[in-house]
User: Fold these one by one.
Assistant:
Number 1:
Amino acid sequence: MFDPAAFEKPDEFIPGWNWYRYFHFGLGSHECLGKYVAMVMIPEMVRQMLLRPCIKALGTIDFQSGLLPERYELLWSANS
């Protein structure tokens, strides 16, 4: 994922890339079966964290006219 010959700006997160540009779960016959579990579990884990009372949104989700969120400011309180 960090090979500059394969990826332009490999150190940057580029939300506009299509999903097939990422190889975190392998590719083709070497694709990880855990990919499908992760596609369900990761969003649910994030959702559960955001529902906790110690996390407050400081504004709305900013999509900056794209499909994916670009900015979402949160406040985490250790006392709640």
Number 2:
Amino acid sequence: MKTAQRYPTLYKVVTDLGAFSSMLLPAYRLRPYQLAPARAILESVRRQRGDQFAVVFSRQAGKDEMLAQLLALLLLQRSRHGGAATIAAPTFRPQAALSRDRLRDRLLGNQLTAPLITKLDASAIRLGQAQVTFVSASPAANARGQTADLLLVANEAQDIEPRIWDAVFDPMAASTNATTVFMGTVWSQSTLLARQMRHLRALEAKDGRQRVWLVPWPVVARDLPAYGEHVRARIAQLGDAHPFIRTEYFLEELDGDGGLFPPHRIAQIRGDHPRLDRARPGARYALLIDVAGEEESGSDPLDLAGDDDRRDSTALTVVEVDTTSRPDGQAVYRVVDRRAWTGTRHTALHDQLVDLARHVWKASWVVVDATGIGAGLASFLRTSLARKSGSSPTVEVIPFIFSGASKSRLGWDFLGLIDSGRFREYRSDADTPTEAGRVTARYEAQLRATTYEVLTGPGNVLRWSVPARDGHDDLVISAALAAELERIDPRPRIALGHGVT
């Protein structure tokens, strides 16, 4: 008598991932959007088709849980006949180790697979004769020699260098015709995941078989209403145009058309409000300062003649902070002035900035580069502006220390402001034959010259700057510091008297 006839429930459990998940792991039961790609992957393994798949889920939607249960069932199915799967992640700890631990817990957590475990160590789990090995795809790691005759997975593939994958991992599947899966977040066009998705979509167009599985947040929210509420709150906070929202929840690929500020993005920040030379009554302002090194001979503000395009300047951007024009209460930052000082001594610069903050703009905030030599100027400004001066209130000074990570975060956040329509420039005066117009022209040139790359590896680090051959990015950095104002609550504080509720 056939197994299916004698033990119909057991047969279903070992042949169907939905039954395996719901019967053996009910606390982690997979949902339809998880089952669909997993079943396609298992079918490719079973038929030895050697297909490739790309699987992209919205953030925290259960991609890794799907992978763990898929691997658990695959090990069970192949426990007698053997076979090997390799799971590669950008790092072993924590990424590959987390995948290993999740699989271990699912195998130990049900009575059918727990007794069959024959190996549990730092990098491998074996069920009977079948094994899954977890490795790092870091350039410094040594993954050569691993086999993958059943399945090869690139988890968080956007952070794996394509050259490493092609040289070390792709041959593991090519020699055995193993099924290959690329999982992760899309981000930019240059990632391994994005490259494979383009290739797989071309194959889909030829034969109509689905190979790319995208599960954006609305699909997940249909099964998990609480998840939908969480994502809606994040969208309300950051805006639906923020790079994080676009890539992690809507699964959109970021622009890859050269510069960080392509023509459409520059067009988006253009406003029609005039440039100002002092504060308007009732408006609130912030001064954003990128600090340059000082030289023995100083120059006046806006003195950008001669070789100054090739010299770093202390750059000031003044923004009006408007928290009343949007129904969601999010701030809009309107640039109303910008200035630059090249070679000016910080002692003289300090006095000018204090005057601008207190008397010209009556600023509420000053965001200042406090990196390296800028730390001294930032400290002096903080001391000076913390004191009341006549009727002038104190000014909150917010230091910003640049590092690879903080500049990356600033870049992503600045793009979020721009793409959500919350950063606007004054009406361009770059064509006017004035010193102020020349500053605007220099700023616009820096925008066009700013290049970027998203580094492989954890964190999606954004590296952005103006190449040395094209000058500096001081004015652009100054403008980007507007994003740091998002870390405070810019809404006006309302004082309540005693007894008022």
Number 3:
Amino acid sequence: MIDFFYFLLLLFVVIAIFNIIIFVHELGHFLAARWRGLQVDRFQVWFGKPIWKKEINGVQYGLGWLPFGGFVALPQMVTMESVEGENRSADELPPVTPLDKMIVAFAGPFFSLSLAFLAAFAVWGLGKPQDAIKSNVIGAVVKDGPADKAGLKAGDKILKVEGEPVKWFAGGLFDDIRTRIMLTEGDGVTFEIERDGEVQTVESKFDIEKTDWWKRRALPQVGIAPNVPAIVGEMISDKNGVKGPAERAGMTPGDEIVAVNGKTVYSPAGVGFLLGENDWKESEISVKRGDEIAKLQMTPLKPVGDFYEDPMIGIRWSDQGMFSTEIIRPNPLQQIGNSLKTMWITIKTVSSPNSHVGVDQLAGPIGIAKTKFLLLKEDHGWLRVLAFFVLFNVNLAVLNMLPLPVLDGGHIVMAIFEWIRGKPLPVKFLEVVQSACALVLIGFMLFITTKDIGDEIPGKGSKAEGPQELVWPGEGS
């Protein structure tokens, strides 16, 4: 019951954050319109027919049923009645200048950016967690994978990916190995590595896993894992209490596997690869306990049933030494700058014809809500969401300044044209263009939302029933 109420609390927080972000953006338009003397018909958070509304001093305030943003209905600006509903006719109201229109349009992104700065000051004071795998050494290479075929080996130190220096395996701001591989264009990845004191260049292909049509496309992978310690977290017995291979061999939680059959282990994944190289036969496992090295004999076993493809050793890995989390305190300008850099790289990558990252990799309202929900559940969850709050508001400000007719940047561009022409653009033309673009934008968000939902649906060949209950072959098998 406590978990259920905790879930409801987190869900309420996620929805509240969404509404705050949208409300502040639209509040900018509203206050600027009042300042410049424009008529305000409605102030609504979310699109669609209102599920709640109330009129105060001639302004209808409401909450729509489509969670894709919000609007302030301004008849003297360009109307979108197909989306916003019927507004007061602009013919009944005095005209406004192009400057007024530009100020009102710019006020929304300005308020979003201001909210981002306020949150950034809070992050500066409270700090934000930075998770990273601080290793740029390869810990394991998938057998017959692209990296293996290219000649990359466990123990290689990666210095650059596609000519860009990398700090560590994951967790940087576009300067980590995982992200640089994801952003690669073309049909290969160039690595600059250090091996035995020598710097070499290696050209590797990559794999992109096929996904079902309702899911997002997978991203490029070359088949490498980072160099992190292979520390045993816990032993896995089966449902009957029969011990697994590792526990039978004398392994205990806290042991660090450092070698298999005399070959150095650079990562947990490397243990499985080395055991597979030995055809899953009895192997000598060197484990570090304190300052001593113990040698154990162990034979992997395949659990009973057809769910499991390969033999297993019966342990869960500890995350000790795998990830590092530190609280950092970048100043507000650094945070805004990093958010802008993230936006620029995202837009550039998604719009590139040679990129393997497409619009289907973007997150819609459900995906963003899920991200916030998961962030709240992690350690330092509130700090994580606060840092995400900065990024999201910067994104909202930048996206709304794009020169597309339905966005604030489009309003500014049209006002500039009006200023140059010396007279307003045709009202009917503007209404059609604005409404059409609004419907396209809503359709696009619905498309992204289908991917948010589709990623949660099991694909073809997935075992919806989940793993069978674990049963080890008996002692002496």
